[in-house]
Specification:
Number of strands: 0
Radius of gyration: 23 Å
Strand content: under 5%
Largest sheet: none
Order of helices and strands: HHHHHHHHHHHHHHHH
Oligomer: single chain
Distance between the termini: 40 Å
Number of helices: 16
Amino acid sequence: MPEPRGAGRPGAFTEGPVARTLVAFSLPILGASILQALNGSINAAWIGRLLGNQALTGAANANSLIFFLAGAVFGLGLSTTVMVGQALGAKNLDLAKRAVGTGTTFFAGFAAVLGAVGYVLAPQLLSAMHTPDDALALAVSYLRVLLIALPGVYLYSFVMMALRGAGDARTPFVFLIFSVAIDIGLTPLLIQGAGPIPRFGIAGAGLASLIAQWLCLIALVAWLYVRKHPLCLARSELRYLRVDRAILAKLLGKGVPMGLQILLTNTAALAMITFVNHYGSQTTAAYGACNQLWSYLQMPAFAVGSAVSSMAAQNVGAQRWDRVSRIAWAGVGCAAVLTSALVGLVMLGNRPALALFLGEHSASLPIAMHINAMVAWSYIPLVVGLVLFSLIRATGTVMVPLAIVFVSFLAIRLPFAYFLEPSLGADSIWWAFPAGAFAWTALSGGYYRWGGWRQARLLDPPARPSRSAAFPPAAPERVAS
């Protein structure tokens, strides 16, 4: 779908059609999620085929740790999206640039320190994860290369989220296409070697990711400067790279609770797989195959939720509360329709879809079909809560959403699975998913309807009208306390 006129221009979300803009803005985000998932799957296939199961096990353990480390700053990235969006909605380009400068320096410094510490402690970290002994050395080699690439990963994610806050999801998606193509193309070449290129083994897979990530980041930043993107820092604005303590405090104050939300959901996921493991390897394999399908069911909701958060942030900054409500319901409708369609397709192809992961004659296949039939449909109510959750987060409200995550996934889902196990057996685990989904949606919907999130702000309201002609900053807003 073509991008609506004006989309991608800072502040564009405060005007024009809501639903059409939302759909067009969501599509590149959805495409990015799919690309990243495919990239991981293809690279895992290269490692498994060229280096064997031990290397694949090592890569899986290293990737799990990298995913955890990436999630550690995901909340800060989300809070940056909200601050940039609110600042641009209030026509305060100066504050948006100061947020970008502070975030860039913090992300780069934090990633460098984390990467260096992780590089030294890689063997101990992987041993603590009970990485199998025959895969440990391979995992260490792969992880250390990924840790060198970590600053590039963090900075690209930061730039991507800042651009989304400014209303541009298409540019980072286009550059991600090139990054994935380079990564996929280089991985077998660097693993095996060819001509003057030496054989790097599993480290070659990490090196391919490192090269692709940094090339993509450098090319993206260069392109933004060539195109004179409004968020680019001019020479006279390089002082904004010095950390602004007030901005950093606000980003951390909102970002840490957002990161804790992710941590709680990951904790619940780890607890659920612990319950599943008690029923043996066949049930665990079935559950793993279902998780592969469920990851795709979540993608439309996360894409729409990200778009809703960016659009709502600009309108909150502009005090356009009428549009905030329209964004909420357009997002709910879009996510529900897309997820319902995917759930329908998955259920129609239940057996062949799961057989792709398990094999047509696997003893786990009937178990997986049973699990999927009980759980897949619960993603429909789940996405409604996710979209409302994303919109509430766009105001800077974080503590109530954190409490909702805790109640839905730790206080309801886990006890449901644990205490009903004597009467329902393994089905208590599968029924716990709808229970948590409905709790999440009911609590998010209730807080959207009656909660005080509309009074939350990352910024103080603008003091007086904007002045400049091109993209005028208003009188400098303070970061709200």
